[in-house]
Amino acid sequence: MKWLNRVNNNFDASKKSTFSHDLQNHPLMQFDELKKLALRHPTVKFHSANIPRTQSLETVVKEAPSNMNLADALNNIETSGTFVFIQNIQNDPIYGKFVNEILDEIENDVHKNQSNMRKRQAWVFITSPGGTTPYHRDQESAHYFHIKGKKTFWLWDAKDRSVVSQKENEFFHGVYGLSKTRYDETYMSKASEYAINPGDGIFFPYTAPHMVENGKEEFSISFSVTHMTDEDFAIRRVNKINQLLRKFGLSPKDQGESGLIDNLKLAFHWVLRTTLSPFGNNWKNA
Ligand SMILES: [Fe+2]
Known about the structure:
Blueprint: E1 4-6, E2 17-21, H1 31-40, E3 44-48, H2 60-63, H3 70-75, E4 82-86, H4 96-110, E5 118-127, E6 132-136, E7 141-148, E8 151-155, H5 166-175, E9 192-196, E10 200-204, E11 210-214, E12 220-228, H6 230-247, H7 259-276
Antiparallel strand pairs: 1-2, 2-10, 3-4, 4-5, 5-12, 6-11, 7-10, 7-12, 8-9, 8-11
Helix pairs in contact: 5-6, 6-7
The chain binds fe (ii) ion (FE2).
């Protein structure tokens, strides 16, 4: 079974691309099934979907809570003004096999350019009409399958330093935090904009900023599968070392500017990771 059809056959996991799919017709992607999943699954977040583009995704559950419980929010999804985020559905006994079949197909493509695909995860997003997913970045590369409704999706390049500054990038990777990742209207002219319908798919590379707005006519469902590779970990680790160097008052070269200096930072990262991780600090698995 083939799960996705790439628009361009020269898939490169470091570059954005689009694909089509048929998951909107899959039994496990129907709203009633996803509702059952949401109500049995241990990791589900939900909050108001009526939030500004500038809202920090890190604090949205606290700052814009839903005014109803999860079952009521889902049963009234057309009017409840809710965003429901079902996390790590690869761990569900019913969804796990399905998710891994899709990830196996993706792994074949990813390994054309990158190595050691891991951190295989899957997520579902259910959004009331008119809802917003504010500007943010994720700690992985994503294949985003749109299932139901209409959305406008904006995507940026994580290497565009007029959008993602070096300091924001280092903070994001260094502490895995989004508090410095905020939307600014000047970013809009630099975005790739996609009007997406069921059957459309977008691949966005590691940590590429994105923002989504739901159509006002109906609620929507999207599904994404994500991963990291050796190349992604190298980007994270160099930025994490840069963040550390800044704490000592240094101004490190940006990741990607010098292969030699990046390799020295990766060696330094390895020393810190292997010596400090037994103490349970945040260098473990970083
Ligand atoms: Fe995201």
